[in-house]
Write a structure and sequence with these properties.
Blueprint: H1 3-10, H2 14-23, E1 30-31, E2 37-38, H3 42-56, H4 60-72, H5 77-113
Antiparallel strand pairs: 1-2
């Protein structure tokens, strides 16, 4: 498959396919004598898996590690559970940060409603 076909079927840009190849998400594509990349059908599914893992909260490095563990046959639910636990911990931390930011913003909004807006610097 040509790079444009892979990108289209995977729902990503051509630049994303190139980036994933550079970072090791995809194995290096074979090249035709003309220099065009030729990807296997499995490249589409691999990109979809990488995107699904990123959508869950995996970092790109974690995606690469997880895919390499899968490639070597070392990935099992028991051996990979720690990756998911790490993602859940990061999500929980983000939620806590957002809740703090919401409480702070809500307090400022209540001040504004009472005529004491902290954002109206220099005005009364």
């Amino acid at each position: 498959m040509k790079i444009g076909q892979v990108a289209n079927q995977a729902g990503v840009s051509i630049d994303t396919v190139r980036f994933y190849e550079r970072r090791g998400v995809l194995p290096a594509a074979d090249r035709r004598p003309s220099g065009y990349r030729v990807f296997s059908e499995s490249a589409v599914e691999r990109i979809r898996m990488a995107k699904a893992l990123q959508d869950m909260g995996f970092t790109l490095d974690e995606v690469i590690d997880a895919l390499h563990a899968h490639d070597t046959g070392d990935a099992t639910c028991d051996s990979e559970r720690w990756r998911l636990e790490g993602v859940v911990d990061r999500i929980d931390a983000k939620i806590a940060d957002l809740q703090r930011a919401r409480r702070h913003t809500q307090g400022i909004l209540e001040g504004c409603r009472a005529g004491q807006c902290q954002l109206a610097l220099g005005s009364t």
